[in-house]
Each structure stands twice: as C-alpha cells, then as structure tokens.
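EI: anyone free to look at a 253-residue chain?
SC: sure, send it
EI:
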Amino acid sequence: MLPIILLYIFIFFFGSVVGSFLNVLIYRIPKHEDFVVVRSHCMNCGYQLGWTDLIPIFSWIALGGKCRKCKTRLSVQYPTIEALNGALYVLITVRYGLSIESLLYCFLFSALIALSVIDFRTYEIPIGFNIFILTLGLVRVATDYTDWLQYLIGFLVVSVPLLILYYATGGRGIGGGDVKLMAVCGLLIGWKLILLSLGLGCIIGSIIHVIRMKASKADRVLAMGPYLSVGIMIATLWGESMINWYLRLSGLG
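SC: here you go
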C-alpha cells in the first residue's frame, strides 16, 4: 500500500509541475509572448522567480499569495491550476494504470485545462493546442492500430456535423476552434466517447451559462471550449461505465 501511495504522490507532484507550466501558457499565449526562453517572472514588477518561488502550490502558500519583491497579490489561479492538473493525473492513473493511455490522457487533460481558460477569456482556442492533441491522437492510433477505424470515425462523427453547423450559421452557432477540438479529441478517444463528450458538454454548458446569465449578467455568447473540455474529461474517465449503464437500463446491453 505504501509504494502505491508514494507513486500517487509523485504523480500528483509531477502533474502540479506541469500545471505550473500551464499557467505560463495561459498568461503568455494570448499576449503572443515567448513561453520557452523567457524565464518566469512577476507580471507586475518583472522580478525573475528563483527555484524557491516555483515549487507548485507550496511557494504560493509560503509567500502568502504575494510576489516576494513587490508584494503584489498573485492570482489564486496559480495553485488552483497546479492542484487540479495534479489531481487529474492521479485520477487518470487510478483509472488506466501505468500505461500509454494514461500518459496520452494526462497530456490531453493538461491541454484541455489551458485551452479552456484561454477560450473562456478570449473566445479563441489557439491552434497550437489542437495540433498538440492531434499529435496525441496519431500516437494513440499508432499504438492501438487494430482499432484504427474507431478513431477515424471519432475524428469525423462529431466534427463533420459541427463543421456544417459552422458554415450554415456563419460561425455564430459554433466556433471553428471547437470544431477542430472535437475532431482531434475524437481521434484520440474514439467515436463512442466523443459522442458522449458532445452531449455532456452541451448539457453542462447550457446549465452553467444560464446560471451565469442570471447571476452575473454574462453575455449570451458563450465559449464552448471549456464545457466541451469538461465533457471530454468526464467521458474519458467514466464514459465506458456511463455507456454500459445506459445500455443496461435501456435493455440494449
């Protein structure tokens, strides 16, 4: 039991480190700033962070959520994204074990987190995220080539109808980035789970956005990326069980 606990602690810490990098992407990509060469720094005073400032979650807590130099309050987004990514990595490992699936889905979830925050703020999904997920999908097909057809169908089954909707509404019914997102995610998780993802995303999006419009007077236009991403995460983690439950309930299983 102890080795398993230590393994999950390591996976959580690794996920939180990746989550720290996601924060960099979230802030810099919309501003078209370099996120590879330029060192991490305070967004207010430019103070370059040392290694003691970069320990996921703990550095934010130790500094009281403030910059070490200028004392500007740092967003709670930093530890939240780090902890969320770490927790999701653990959930994926519990679900799929130490496997190529786990590795691919961990990277998928990280990309979904980052693009969701960016899309929520800018109503745009940077193409780089879709290219990254496409690469994961191609690796998935290569490592499970005997079931290549389910991934090819997954690439098309949701994205093609959404593409028709996109052109039919002049981009008002769905965003082009959302169409690409569902295509590349379908290539990675297959047609059954991507169909479930779409249904879950639409349901979650409609409920949450109505609440937001009532509570905070949010605009009627919504960024679908975050809701589709949540649907994809739920389907990836528990979709098979949900589908089997439905089939048994309907007498088809």
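EI: The chain has ten helices and no strands.
SC: 👍
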